[in-house]
Specification:
CATH topology: Arc Repressor Mutant, subunit A
Order of helices and strands: HHHEHHEEH
Structural class: mainly alpha
Number of domains: 1
Distance between the termini: 48 Å
CATH superfamily: Winged helix-like DNA-binding domain superfamily/Winged helix DNA-binding domain
Number of strands: 3
Oligomer: single chain
């Protein structure tokens, strides 16, 4: 059993068990950074799009009606947050959602909140 800690206020709850289960700073910071990036509507749209396809900058730009340089900026931020990955195919870079638990969870959260379903 977890050791009971002396919290500033004892309200008769078992907060010490919850306190022992708090995620570490690295885990919290990673999720926080990812969610910050998805706080921008354009990045949210791009991320959702890339959850369903692998595309180059030009096709992403056409799909979301933005310029390629603007898309490249957003892709750089999404990639830094670990939400997307890229691979080179010839002269083109192709982007898709990362194959991670975090990316998948955020993808499903977006679809649940927005009440949309994955395209078939």
């Amino acid at each position: 059993m977890a050791e009971k800690k002396n919290l500033p206020h004892n309200h008769g709850r078992i907060n010490f068990i919850i306190e022992d289960s708090l995620p570490d700073d690295a885990a919290i910071n990673g999720v926080s950074d990812a969610m910050k990036q998805l706080g921008d509507p354009t990045r949210l749209r791009i991320f959702w799009y890339l959850c369903h396809t692998e595309e180059c900058v030009l096709d992403i730009a056409a799909a979301v009606k933005m310029t390629s340089p603007a898309i490249s900026h957003h892709l750089r931020l999404l990639k830094a947050a670990g939400l997307i990955t890229s691979r080179r195919e010839g002269k083109e870079m192709l982007y898709k959602a990362a194959d991670s638990d975090l990316a998948q969870a955020l993808h499903h959260m977006i679809e649940n909140i927005a009440e949309i379903t994955c395209p078939e």
